[in-house]
């Protein structure tokens, strides 16, 4: 158990819909990262938040957005869903700053039908 | 980010040592070498990291070449539970920057 909690574990939704994935980082971790893993693309970095502020953006679509709240939990919002958005979405956390180890959650399986 | 090169796949017999190589010829002086692994249907898991000296922990050992252009992750006695994709990643020291994953090495452990 990494200490990073993601909900829901599985989600099935229709094209065009919107979903929210939730992440609770390890206690005390200030950095939260989101990754997408689909069969043909491997692990792709989406976005990084540190203590509520966006720090880096990767290959995140405009239809996707994220935020980190004052209690440090984070949400990834996916809208106007397409079939190709079906993937595993991972949240990870670290101390931030000089902390080198990043801990990953178990992921949220999203299936768009 | 400096790039790493790993074999696509490797096989090992159970209870034998496994040496997983990684080349990183463009590594900079401030890059740490990190290894993560991902078991099927699970999130990536930290294995070990190092800068210049060889490192050991309860999971594995990391051997780093003197010129730091390559490294080897050593699993001393492979078990079936070690079957996973192993990623070698460079990360700037003291940075909260994200990890950039390549395609990794798929390790198959044969009983």
Distance separating the two termini of chain B: 38 Å
Give the proportion of residues in helices of chain B: under 10%
The end-to-end distance of chain A, rounded to whole angstroms, is 31 Å
- Give the largest interface: A-B, 29 and 21 residues
Helical fraction of chain A: under 10%
How many runs of DSSP E, i.e. beta strands of chain A?
11
The helix tally of chain B amounts to 0
Strand content of chain A: over 45%
Question: Can you characterise this structure?
Answer:
With 113 residues, chain A is mainly beta. Chain A contains no helices and eleven strands. In chain A, a hairpin with an 8-residue loop joins strand 9 (87-94) and strand 10. Chain A is globular. Chain B has 111 residues and is an all-beta fold. Helices cover 0% and strands 47% of the residues of chain B. Chain B has no helices and nine strands. In chain B, the strands form two sheets. In chain B, strands 1-9-8-3-4 form a five-stranded mixed sheet, with no helix packed on it. Chain B has a four-stranded antiparallel sheet with strand order 2-7-6-5, with no helix packed on it. In chain B, a hairpin with a 6-residue loop joins strand 3 and strand 4. The model of chain B has no long low-confidence stretch (mean pLDDT 93). The chains are: A mainly beta (113), B mainly beta (111). Chains A and B meet through strand 4, strand 5, strand 9 and strand 10 of A and strand 3 and strand 4 of B.
What structural keywords apply?
heterodimer; A: 113 residues; mainly beta; 4-stranded antiparallel β-sheet; globular; B: mainly beta; 5-stranded mixed β-sheet; 47% strand
Q: What is this entry, summarized?
A:
By secondary structure, chain A is mainly β. Chain A has strands at 5-7, 10-13, 19-24, 31-38, 42-50, 53-57, 64-68, 74-78, 87-94, 103-104, 108-112.
SSE diagram, text form:
The complex is a heterodimer of chains A (about 110) and B (about 110).
Chain A: E1 5-7, E2 10-13, E3 19-24, E4 31-38, E5 42-50, E6 53-57, E7 64-68, E8 74-78, E9 87-94, E10 103-104, E11 108-112
Parallel strand pairs in A: 2-11
Antiparallel strand pairs in A: 1-3, 3-8, 4-5, 4-9, 5-6, 7-8, 9-10, 9-11
Chain B: E1 9-13, E2 18-23, E3 31-38, E4 45-50, E5 55-56, E6 61-64, E7 70-75, E8 84-92, E9 105-110
Parallel strand pairs in B: 1-9
Antiparallel strand pairs in B: 2-7, 3-4, 3-8, 5-6, 6-7, 8-9
